[in-house]
Amino acid sequence: MARSIVITSGKGGVGKTTLVANLGRSLADLGQRVVLMDTDLGLNNLDVLMNIENKVVFDIIDVIENRCRTAQALIEDKTVKGLFVLPSCHSYDASKINGQNIKAVVSGLARSFDYILLDCPAGIEVGFHRAVSAAGEAIVVTTPHISSIRDADKVIALLKSYQIDPISIIVNRARGDLILNSEMVDYKDIGRILKTPPLGVVPEDDAINLLSNLGLTVDSKSDGFSAIALLAKNLHCGTTEMFDVTKKYKGILGGLKRNLRKII
Question: How many folded domains does the chain comprise?
Answer without folding.
Answer: 1
